[in-house]
Amino acid sequence: MTPPTDPVAGPATDPAAEPPSGVPGGAGMDEIRLARIALTWLAEPGNRAVSLLVARLGPVDALRHLLAGEASDPKLRAAVVSRTAADDPWEIAADAAERTERIGARLVTPEDEDWPPRLRDLSRLALASAARRVDQETAPPLCFWVRGAWPLAEALQRSVAVVGSRAATPYGLHVATEIGFGLAERGWTVVSGGAYGIDAAAHRGALNAGGLTVAVLACGVDRPYPVGHTALFDRIAEDGLLISEWLPGAEPLRPRFLIRNRVIAAATSGTVLVEAAARSGATQTLHRALALKRPAMVVPGPVTSAMSVGAHETLREYPEARLVTGLPHILEEVGRIGADLAPPARGPQRPHDALDDESALVLESVPRRGSLGPDALAARSGLALRTALRKLSMLEQLGLVVRRDNGYALPPARVRPRGQPPGPPSG
Amino acid sequence: MTPPTDPVAGPATDPAAEPPSGVPGGAGMDEIRLARIALTWLAEPGNRAVSLLVARLGPVDALRHLLAGEASDPKLRAAVVSRTAADDPWEIAADAAERTERIGARLVTPEDEDWPPRLRDLSRLALASAARRVDQETAPPLCFWVRGAWPLAEALQRSVAVVGSRAATPYGLHVATEIGFGLAERGWTVVSGGAYGIDAAAHRGALNAGGLTVAVLACGVDRPYPVGHTALFDRIAEDGLLISEWLPGAEPLRPRFLIRNRVIAAATSGTVLVEAAARSGATQTLHRALALKRPAMVVPGPVTSAMSVGAHETLREYPEARLVTGLPHILEEVGRIGADLAPPARGPQRPHDALDDESALVLESVPRRGSLGPDALAARSGLALRTALRKLSMLEQLGLVVRRDNGYALPPARVRPRGQPPGPPSG
Asked: Which of A23, A242, A399, A410 is 20 to 30 A off residue A14, Cα-Cα?
């Protein structure tokens, strides 16, 4: 299809190329979205010059401007020339759109209601690095590919990033799992990078709590890296979200991990660094959080461990970085009024805080997933069957447990990220 | 002997008691010193009212004033009445003076050149706690009992306190030993409280490096506590110093440890907290250092360890407390210009920093205590005997090693706290 001139983007300036007509997937994918895909492909995500151009002209005219060879940034101009020598950006975009559909993913752009509002803060970061003449990809993403059913903005609204070393120690893995579990249990989405070590421990902790977790990838959502995490990624896509700024099929090139890190820091209410070697990628994510004035939290460790050197260095160098030893400290930071764009969190308000000890014991013994019979629940809570049954009946009346499969289970709402959100849309 | 009226202390105001004549030890112990002992006995060390009185009237008239029942502080007045019901303070002081001599200890008072100048800063601390109406024994000590040959002020001039939990973990013991060793190796005196756990590890680390260590006790220097450390205390008295504000024979009563802590913080260039449970005595020492504006350093640990809770709490609550992971960070803090009354340290200047690699290896392999033959030194340094001999000859010419017992040893100066100090006086 021939795209109409977008009235919002102003008059088209000498369009050098047009999107091909009748591209597959073009039906559900308007010109702006295709332009965002093409721009993402032309330069690495986070490119400041592209971002400024899009802010000025809109995605479609920004793309036309670039394709006409009018980029003022010489590096960007050279990249456009080299990338368009053999390929047509509009065709690449159309192919990517088709592939997106085929792999069961979806595209989310800043034009969508589902765009995470916090990401706009990256414009400030990009301006700051421009002012300091630092050549870094710190501009906001142009679009996201998303696998998973949850609305993106909602999933990220109350979220905490947990990042750290791939070569984590048992200590770090334990701490990251506990934090991931605890955050998810209290309705916070756990965001990380899907890597081995700390990332995986945080994701798994959240999944095991029946909570929501988001993996921000540095490659296509259809080829998540590392391959050893294929099963983990499938589980995350099923219960949470896999997201990426890169086109389907994009390779996990080394620099992309650092580019990706700004999204982890920007999309969340705060970032927790669990274990990191000196000057590692995870410390960079924390520095991004600091630059964005988000709560930047660091878990200390043994000074004898090389895997805590980056954590201790960060605590020494950045007085704004906050030492945290576990969930209470983290909740204190991200729950601070004004700490994020979400309504001020008043800390976890769990119904059973108001229960008597025995009822609370019974409620605690109901599994987060699946159900258990009264006998098992009595055994788990250490109460007599008769007492357990009385308490279960009371808990059922309060709506804190439901009967299922001849036993008791938690009501579905308990594992959702917020008070009364709608269930995830189907596909 | 009847003491003459001290012209410095001004006119005697209705002396209620006089020191007994002909007391043993009185020969070497003048009236001021006896008065300081008596005052220390009358009220616990660090008593603010006593300290102010001594500052105003001098020790002798302060004592007379108190014995005349003229203390304005009602608690102090009551203490004086109860203590003097059965005992005469002058006699107690004379007995203590005799016992001091008998146990081979000595008394050091602010009138002596050997008084550590940093302790005067406690007057500020006492004024601050008076202003905040906090009832704490924070005033400077009235005198010290000292066992060991080193001059007290000199031993403490370049010193670092290393404090922590009695119930230390293997991790904490390892870190404290390393820090104690490293500090001593670089000519810093290691000060601690002689307790089990971190204190002992720090003392032992210093002793093993052939360095100087000072144990500040909360009981008489002739009955150091805990008794399980008798051998350690003997070694400290031999190579370093055992010091106390309490009279010989004084018991290690619980509150005395907290009173003692202010001396550890005040006498040193800085305090390092290695491991501490929540709200422990060791964290109190660090708080004293903070109040005195001395470098207050904290070694983090695993967040899973109860023995690091106090360390992490302190780092979270006091932004002035500095996270340190080892010796380089500690030297950076205590070596800061203006951080202490000692001339600004320019960091360790070790002669072999200017040596070639092989010579440095040989020098490093010379034991800190005793001597080794050329064969052993060649083996330790991993060099051929011929090379080792050549380097040893060169090192001898540079004065960096000396021949002893058919081998080579470090010259005595190398294990001394500073560049060219005099050797310790004999007894």
From this structure: A23
- Assess B297–A contact: CB distance below 8 Å, yes or no: no
- When the candidates are 3.40.50.10050, 3.40.225.10, 3.90.1200.10, 1.10.10.10, the CATH number that belongs to B351-411 is 1.10.10.10
State whether residue B235 sits within 8 Å of chain A by CB: no
**Interface mutation target, options B175, B274, B303, chain A, most CBs of A under 10 Å:** B303
Nearest residue in chain B measured CA to CA from A171: B302
Query: pLDDT by residue for chain A (427 residues), tens digit each?
Result: 333 333 333 333 334 445 554 444 443 469 999 999 999 999 989 999 999 999 999 999 999 999 999 888 888 999 999 999 999 999 999 999 999 999 999 999 999 999 999 999 998 888 777 777 776 788 999 999 999 999 999 999 999 999 999 999 999 999 999 999 999 999 999 999 999 999 999 999 999 999 999 999 999 999 989 999 999 999 999 999 999 999 999 999 999 999 999 999 999 999 999 999 988 889 999 999 999 999 999 999 999 999 999 999 999 999 999 999 999 999 999 986 444 333 333 333 344 445 666 777 788 788 877 888 888 888 777 778 888 888 887 777 667 788 888 888 887 654 333 333 344 444 3
Report ipTM (2 d.p.): 0.70
Out of A171, A312, A325, name the one closest to residue B312 (CB). Answer: A325
**Cβ–Cβ gap A325/B319 under 8 Å:** no
Query: Rounded to two decimals, what is the model's pTM?
Result: 0.73
Query: What dotted CATH number matches A351-413?
Result: 1.10.10.10
Using an 8 Å Cβ cutoff, are B334 and B199 in contact?
no
Residues on chain B touching A297 (C-beta within 8 angstroms) = none
User: What is the spatial distance between Cα B375 and Cα A363, in angstroms, rounded to a whole number?
Assistant: 73
**Which of B122, B139, B137, B145 lies closest to B37, judged by CA?**
B145
Give A422's Cβ-side CA count (13 Å radius): 7
Class of CATH domain A144-334: alpha beta
Q: Are strands A159-163 and A270-273 parallel, antiparallel or unpaired?
A: parallel
